[in-house]
Specification:
Layout (H helix, E strand, L loop, with lengths): L2 E5 L5 E5 L4 E2 L6 H11 L9 E7 L5 H10 L7 E8 L5 H7 L10 H10 L5 E5 L2 E7 L13 E6 L13 H10 E9 L4 H9 L2 E7 L6 E7 L1
Parallel strand pairs: 4-5, 4-8, 5-7, 8-9
Antiparallel strand pairs: 1-2, 2-3, 6-7, 9-11, 10-11
Helix pairs in contact: 1-2
Length: 224
């Protein structure tokens, strides 16, 4: 897929896929969206001593970076195990051009950013003390064959239903639900009525939340 770098309204960059006419992140602000959907309405709602996160998909690695940034603000008495699926990894040139470490004041973030992207696929790598990342190169529907611990938090960050409708239908949500712990949280930027109904059918408690900038609503769903 041919991709190009674009700058979003908050100054952070994203990738744009010409063939799909689709951004990896909201054009209103890539960083704002990641922090609102996956940190404010995701990580910050989980209080476990060990948090297992499943991300669909890794994309540019921005969600990993904002998760580490939030982790560093805590007392770090807990452990995060982060599992991220991606079918089409970005290349070294794109990683360098995105330069997400520049969005953060911490001088260690350049090294952390590089470590995230240089981490071997299919291996668990300690990015910083207490934060372990395993990147898995696969189709999302291969999830059924992947051995994971019970997942406490899902970052459901697939491309939009306009370009990949099969990723927003019941079969994939069933696979995700099967990997989640009871009381696990799924958070996504989507607020589609069909998605809410699917999650409710799968025994999730679904709540509409205020969306990130440029989007009225988003979804939180707790597995019952």
């Amino acid at each position: 897929m041919k991709r190009e770098i674009k700058t979003t309204n908050d100054g952070s960059k994203t990738l744009f896929i010409n063939d799909l006419n689709e951004n990896y992140h909201s054009h209103h602000g890539a960083l704002q969206e990641a922090e609102h959907v996956f940190i404010k309405n995701g990580l910050n709602l989980i209080n476990n001593c060990e948090i297992n996160i499943l991300e669909l998909g890794f994309g540019t690695g921005l969600n990993v970076l904002v998760t580490i940034n939030e982790y560093l603000k805590t007392d770090k008495n807990h452990v995060i195990n982060y599992f991220s699926l991606e079918k089409y990894p970005i290349n070294e040139s794109e990683v360098n051009d995105l330069a997400y470490f520049e969005l953060f004041d911490n001088p260690e973030f350049k090294n952390i950013y590089q470590k995230i992207h240089l981490a071997d696929w299919e291996k668990s790598v300690e990015i910083i003390s207490g934060f372990n990342l395993k990147k898995i190169e696969c189709d999302f529907f291969d999830l059924k064959n992947i051995n994971l611990p019970e997942i406490n938090l899902v970052y459901f960050d697939c491309f939009g239903a306009r370009v990949q409708p099969d990723l927003w239908e019941k079969p994939l949500f069933e696979l995700v639900a099967d990997k989640m712990a009871i009381n696990g949280l799924l958070t996504t930027y989507s607020s589609k009525g069909s998605v809410r109904r699917i999650l409710q059918e799968l025994n999730f408690q679904v709540e509409k939340k205020q969306g990130p900038p440029g989007k009225r609503e988003m979804i939180n769903a707790i597995k019952l």
